[in-house]
Amino acid sequence: QVHLVESGGGWVQPGGSLRLVCVGSKDIKENYVMGWYRQAPGKQREMVARIALGGTTLYADSVKNRFTISRDNAKNTVYLEMDSLNAEDTAVYYCHAEYFDFQAWGSGIQVTVSA
Predict the structure, then answer these.
(1) Can you count the helices (H) and strands (E) in the chain?
(2) Which residues is 68 bridged to in the sheet?
(3) Reduced to 3 states, what is the DSSP secondary structure of residue 87?
(4) How many CB atoms lie within 10 A of CB 61?
(5) Selection from 2, 8, 10 nearest residue 76 by Cα
(6) pLDDT digits over 14-30, tens only?
(7) In this structure, are residues 33 and 49 in contact, taking their beta carbons and an 8 Å threshold?
(8) Distance (Å, whole) CA 39 – CA 2
(9) pLDDT in tens, 34-87
(10) 108: which of 65, 78, 92, 97 fits an S-S bond (Cβ 3.0–4.6 Å)?
C-alpha cells in the first residue's frame, strides 16, 4: 500500500516562503507522476503542480513563477518550494501520486498566509 506523508506547512506572512515535503513509501516508483493539490475553505480541490519521471512539470496559472516542484527519486520525495506567498495560497495542501489508473493521496497539511 502506498503512503504519502507531507510536512513543512504552517503559518507565514504575505510575501514569505515555505517548502513542503512529501515522503512516499518505498512502493512509490520513479515513473509515478507526483503532484501537489490544494483545497481552500469552501472551494474545490485544485491542482497546484505536477512532475513526471523526466522532470516535466505543470503548474497552475496562479502559482507559475512563484512555486517550484521537484523530486528526488532516490529518496521517494517530492518538494514544493513556495515563494511570494499571498493570502489566496492559504489552503490544505495534499501530496498526490499517480500511475495509470492508480492514485494515492497524503492526508494533507495546512498552509496559512496572513499578516
Answers:
(1) 0, 11
(2) 81
(3) helix
(4) 6
(5) 2
(6) 999 999 999 998 777 77
(7) no
(8) 22
(9) 999 999 999 999 999 999 988 899 999 999 999 999 999 889 999 999 999 999
(10) 92
